Amino acid sequence: MFQGASQINLDAKGRLAVPVKHREALAAPSAGKLVMTAHPHKCVLLYPEANWEPIRSRVMTFPSLDATASVWKRMLIGFAENTTLDNAGRILLSPELRSFAGIEKQIMFVGQGTHFEVWSLTAWNEQIAALTSGAAGLPPGTENFSL
């Protein structure tokens, strides 16, 4: 279970150092093989390859002549990149994914259970501001949810 948030700086080559507390768990399911792709909310998704495969398989079943399904397929499969952790626990964020997500130097690394989201710090702060202002509202079906 990937959870928690960490603020990280990319190095000059566009690499992020996965927080030490997550390295082993991130590498274990797929022997260090990872997949990154774009999310429509303008962040990067980072999956162990084993966690990504069921999603990729499902996306590949989307009908190619359906305009909406094709857009999603183009985003999720088109941006997908295989990568591995290097010996220092770093992964390279490609220029294409950095550009898509507006990532320059400061990022937030956010656990989402089966994967991580990688946000530009600015976009992350905008998400949090919307949530805490009440503008985001509750997801459907959670009206009676309590903490």
Keywords summarizing the entry:
147 residues, alpha+beta, six-stranded antiparallel β-sheet, two-stranded antiparallel sheet
Describe this structure in words.
The protein is of the alpha+beta class and 147 residues long. It is built from 5 helices and 8 strands. The strands form 2 sheets. A 6-stranded antiparallel sheet has the order 1-7-8-4-3-5. Strand 7 and strand 8 form a beta hairpin. The two termini are 20 Å apart. The model has no long low-confidence stretch (mean pLDDT 93).
Can you describe this structure in just a few lines?
With 147 residues, this protein is an alpha+beta fold.
Mind sketching the topology for me?
Blueprint: E1 5-9, E2 15-17, H1 20-27, E3 33-39, E4 43-48, H2 49-59, H3 67-78, E5 81-84, E6 90-92, H4 95-101, E7 106-111, E8 116-120, H5 121-133
Distance between the termini: 20 Å
* Overall shape: globular
Major sheet: arrangement of strands: 1-7-8-4-3-5
Which sequence of SSEs, written as H and E, runs from N to C?
Answer: EEHEEHHEEHEEH
Mean pLDDT rating? 93
Proportion of residues in β-strands: 25-35%
In helices, the fraction of residues equals 25-40%
Radius of gyration: 16 Å
Main sheet makeup: 6 strands, antiparallel
How many H/I helices? 5
Extract low-pLDDT stretches: none
Number of strands: 8
